[in-house]
Amino acid sequence: MSSTGKSYNYQVKSALVQKDLKRNCCRRSELSAFMHFRGSVIISHHKPSLSITVEGASLARYLFRLLKKVSGVTPHILLRKENRLGHSYFMVRLSDVYRLKKLLNALKIKQGSGWRITPPAPSPPVLARCCRRSYLRGAFLAAGSLNSPHSSYHLEIFSEYEVYSRTVKSLMDNFKLEGSLRQRKNGYYTYLKKADSIMEFLRIIGAHPALLQMENQRVLKSMRNQVNRMVNCETANLDKSLQAAQHQLAIIQKIDTLMGLENLAAPIREAAELRRYHPEASLKELGEMLEPPVGKSGMNHRFRKMSRLCKQLEEGAYRGDTCKTN
Ligand SMILES: [Zn+2]
Asked: How far is the CA of 139 from the centre of ligand 1 (A)?
């Protein structure tokens, strides 16, 4: 939930309905989806009327325009209810019987007995690519939900009827999205879990702001991971060179105690003294402090000699090859 009290999902849909579809074929296709997922034909006083329920005022206005364009009659909008979260549901209704019959025929929606839009629906007609996109767009607007990109990746479209969920699934397959279909207690839902599939879906239905947001969030996530990896790596390297320095300091201390640093050959004594002054410096840095500078491997060589000498001193096997005369 955002600070404005509207869900992320609702914000995405509101942005999506800022633009009306241009082609008649696509409008019909999108309206079919609205009717499949949220529509019902109600009989009242022996007169049928079509009702489509949607969440929020901007979606209701959009559906009003869509229904008016496709059917040629002005529908009514009724506020149905407002829930605790302040979400309002609207019913967009078409009561003209003649136009309604025409509309259902045009959308190839069969009237069940008593005017009900009932499954099994006719298998989805082979639609043009533009209309397949529009059907998915309508299904998402009517019954879809999308998680905020800050949480886990999830997009789903719910239907009480398996047949419509299968339609969505087959359209997703058609666009090579990796959709799955599951049954729930009260119906069926088709969902996408992979970021790539969700982003492609948003692209297909024209939800560009949401797509952009998701892309940004993804870049941010991967940058964060990369930075974490780099920090971990640097910490590990730092630990390693600090450990090495501690080890060297211990050796230097032992040599100093057992024979005195002043008795060491000059290059080795220099290295030992530098290490004592700069316990945190790397070998490379220590080498650069010398005049003339000594490379990392040269410094390594000097500390290896110290280590060997220390061992010999401890074992009483020192033969004097590391002292001043050397
Ligand atoms: Zn079309």
From this structure: 15
